[in-house]
Design a protein that fits this description.
CATH architecture: Roll
Strand order of the largest sheet: 2-3-4-1-5-8-7-6
CATH topology: 2,3-Dihydroxybiphenyl 1,2-Dioxygenase, domain 1
Number of domains: 1
Shape: globular
Strand content: 35-45%
Number of helices: 3
Largest sheet: 8 strands, mixed
Distance between the termini: 32 Å
Helix content: 10-25%
Length: about 140
């Protein structure tokens, strides 16, 4: 069992939801009062995907459409379409080092940079006891 760590979590930053049609999902959340506050492409070995951050007040939902063949896995899910919960941190490197030293199962070898938001962001994930993914994210 990993040792307890002290992290400076500021808030739940966003909840990540994989979708099969990014525009249909964007319109659905617009009808609930959300606004598209960030949109960017990302690259995976299987191809390019699209990410949209939808916001209403302090609530942010990350909608992302994976490339090609990965969409079938999302379509086949029966339950659990929420992919991850992301915590907002003020120092991504300190959070990474703390969790690594404490023995948590970190999925990335180092914080990953994405050209999201104005100046980008860095993130990494850990897994919980039932395989749930918890993301730690710093908007730069």
């Amino acid at each position: 069992m990993p040792l307890p760590v002290q992290l400076s979590l500021k808030a739940i930053q966003h909840i990540g939801i994989p979708v099969t049609d990014i525009r249909t999902s964007e319109n659905f959340y617009r009808m609930l009062g959300f606004t598209n506050v960030m949109e960017a492409e990302f690259t995976q070995p299987e191809g390019k995907g699209t990410c949209i951050m939808m916001q209403q007040g302090a609530i942010v939902i990350e909608l992302y459409q994976l490339p090609g063949a990965l969409l079938q896995e999302v379509k086949n899910r029966k339950d659990g379409h929420i992919d991850h919960i992301a915590f907002d941190v003020s120092d991504i490197n300190a959070a990474y080092d703390s969790l690594l030293k404490a023995g948590f199962n970190i999925l990335e070898p180092a914080p990953v940079f994405l050209q999201f938001w104005k100046n980008g962001c860095k993130y990494f994930n850990i897994t919980g006891p039932d395989g749930e993914r918890l993301e730690f994210n710093q908007v730069l």
